[in-house]
What we know:
alpha/beta; 9-stranded mixed beta sheet; 7-stranded mixed beta sheet; 26 strands; 31% helix; 24% strand
Amino acid sequence: MFExxxxxxTYAKIVDWKSVSAMWNDSVQKYADRxxxxxxxTALTYAxxxxxxxxxxxxxxxxxxxxxxxxxxYAPNGCAFAAAYLAIVTGGAVAALxxxxxxxxxxxxxxxxxxxxxxxxxxxxxxxxPEQMPVPVIGTDAEAEPTDAIEVEAKDPCxxxxxxxxxxxxKGAILSNGxxxxxxxxxxxxxxxxxxxxxxxxxxxxHVFGLIRNLMCTLYTGSVIxxxxxxxxxxxxxxxxxxxxxxxxxxxxxxALNLSRQFKRNMLGDSLKTVxxxxxxxxxxxxxxxxxxxxxxxxxxxxxxxxxxxSGNPDNLNRPESVGLPFPGQELKIVDGxxxxxxxxxxxxxxxxxxxxxxxxxxxxxxxxxARFDADGYLYITGRTKEVIVLSNGENxxxxxxxxxxxxxxxxxxxxxxxxxxxxMLEVVPRNTVLLSKGLEDPIAYLREQLNAVNRTLPTYQRVxxxxxxxxxxxxxxxxxxxxxxx
Length: 487
């Protein structure tokens, strides 16, 4: 299905690798002299990145790290993170990716909980750590005799990543080498030009979207990635780097679009051709408006537990509401409205065995996402099982499904439906740039009219009885999802 969206020569280059080690060895041989990563201070070719990884692999071995050991990585986005991640996983160890915003006490606690053999900590964060750490600590710049990458199997664990859910306690998901490489391969489907690109990274590398769809897809395709370490510098660095691919959450795509309108020029540059957008619901408006700029914005769907990717939408203009077609090799089914998954991209399980009991049934992973398919097999996410509102009349309402109807308006940037006694309330963040462009005498009254018109089209049980137009954004998670219980 995805083959039709690229040329045969490109599609033939999208191959399976059993492990990060196997893929990385191939990329270094093919692309040795090409630029691989840069972060404003450092720029490394594929050969230079491997040289740094090889030295740190040697340092890990010197500390007694063996295949299968768990090694923490506590570092901000940058070239040092990329080299340390490669060193750990191509040395056969399991990289536990610890977000750099974690306080030192939490890092110490997780070191014990995850059973880490060692912690690799960047110099910029080492001062955060307690004096008495439960495991040895070395820096991302540790020196030793370089060693080669070792052979790793698909079944061998590769990374431990925190889930990014908006409800409940975060959990550590264990992804195998096979899962990581399957997720990476999925990131290459459905896009015409995928090899030898210029990626621009603003997402955290400790998040599955940043690690797999940004860094891993870059290295798999012989591309180069610019790591923006401070979002305040984002547009200045874009102007210099001139990316061709940008992987972002919808809130950042919205911001870039608004600034482009404000300054009457494309803030993302003339070289950008592809935007991969996910981690939260993507408004159809964004798909259409980016197309007007000559940029294709592709919605998709995935989870930390699925090594980032489950589906992607190559038919973005005709079905902008859909998260696309499932990538090959997976099994998907809908049980009582909830999407269940199996496949080579799925995690081995959570660190805490107790979390697994609730997550699986008969070998199927229960996503917690409400979903449906259309007649052509395109997937639509309609909400979360935990967010369903049960009204006093017994009707079940998925707030995300109702929000999607209002979010189709070009004047609505985002919305939130919540319970208001025995009724529903809608809160809206207006898309002010669009409202102002219309030269309206009363933009808020116009917006209310539009919202009420949509409301009248909804089934009775989904209609809202109260509409609040906000002058501030909602509180959001690090992946920019609305925190529903913290408005």
